[in-house]
Amino acid sequence: MPNQSPLGLGQLEGPRCNDNTFPCDNYTLTVTLPAGYIALHPNASVKVTMYWTDIGAQQSDYDLYMYRGIVTTLNGSQQADYQAASGANPEVGSISPLADGTNQYSLKIVPYVTTLETVHVRMELLEGTGSICLESSASYSQPATGPGQTSNNSSSVSGGQQSSSSFSAPANVKEISVLAEASGGLPIKLLLVNPAGLTLKTVDSTNGIAVLSAPVTPGGLYTIKVVNVNLGPVSVWTVATPLVSR
Fold first, then answer.
1. Residue 147, preceding bond cis, omega within 30 degrees?
2. CB–CB of 50/85 below 8 Å?
3. Contact 175/214 with Cβ under 8 angstroms?
4. pTM passes above 0.70
5. If 0-12 CB within 10 Å is exposed, 13-18 middle and 19+ buried, where does residue 117 land?
6. 3-class SS at 245?
7. What residue spans of the chain are helical by DSSP H?
8. 98: which residues sit within 8 A by CB, 6+ positions away?
C-alpha cells in the first residue's frame, strides 16, 4: 500500500506513519559509543543506505526519514532530523553529529510508490579510519516470496583489476539482488555471471554504489564480479540477497 506523504519532495513537514492508512516500516537503531570516542573521532557519523530492486516499470520510490529518540506514529507535522527522500535508488542519508554513550534513533521507511519490492537498509558507523556495518531489510513483496539469507564480501581491488565472489543459488530461489559499494564513492562496474560463464547483467555505479538484479536458476553457482575502473586501488563491499519462494 503506497504512502504518499508528505505530498511532494522537498516539503518541510515529515511523513505520516500509522498502522492503518499511512503504512511505514519502523526500526529503532541503538548506537553505543564509549566515553571519549567523539573526542577521538569528532566527525564520526552513521551512514544509512537504503536500496531496492524495482520489479515494476522503474516507478517504485521509497523514502527514508530518521528521528532522534523513539518516535512511533507521525501525523505529518514533525520534520525529520535526517532524511533521504530524493527519489533516487539508492537513497543515502547520514546521522551526524554523534555523541558518547547510548543514543537511539527511529528510522521510517515510507513506500511512496511501491510495486511490491524488498527494501534493504545498510547502516555503517564511519569514524574516518574504518567502519562497522549492519544490514537490515523490509519486505513489500507478496507473501509467496521474500528475501532469503544475505551474504556479503569485502575486498581491495587494484587499479584496472577485478574481484570475484561466488553465490550458490538455493533450491527455492527466484532471482538475486546485488549491491556493491566502493570506498570514496569511486566508480566501479558490477557484473553477474551465470554458471556457464555468460554475463547476465552489467551495471555502472553512481556515487560509488551499483545495484543489479536478475533471475537465477536454483542450485546454480553464480559469480559476482566488481571491476575497478580507476588507476589506483579501491576497497569494495558487496552484498547479495536472493528472492526466494516461501
1. no
2. no
3. yes
4. no
5. buried
6. strand
7. 37-40
8. 31, 33, 38, 44, 45, 46
Identify which of 11, 103, 20, 23 has the alpha carbon closest to the alpha carbon of residue 62.
23
User: Is the distance from CB of 222 to CB of 199 less than 8 angstroms?
Assistant: no
Positive/negative CA dihedral, 76, 82, 88, 90: negative
CA–CA gap between residue 19 and residue 218 (Å, rounded): 36
- Tell me the HSE value of 149 on the side-chain side, using a 13 A CA sphere: 7
Cell numbers that stand for 210 in this block: 551499483
Q: What is the residue-level pLDDT of the chain in tens, covering all 246 positions?
A: 566 665 444 445 788 888 777 888 889 999 998 888 888 888 899 999 999 888 777 788 999 999 999 998 888 888 899 999 888 888 999 999 999 999 999 999 998 888 888 888 888 888 755 455 555 555 554 445 566 777 888 889 999 999 999 888 888 888 888 889 998 889 999 999 999 999 999 999 988 888 888 888 888 899 999 999 999 999 998 988 887 775
- Our CA angle for 202, 173, 55, nearest 5°, is 55
- Residues 49 and 122 sit within 8 Å (Cβ to Cβ): yes
- Cell 537503531 belongs to 29
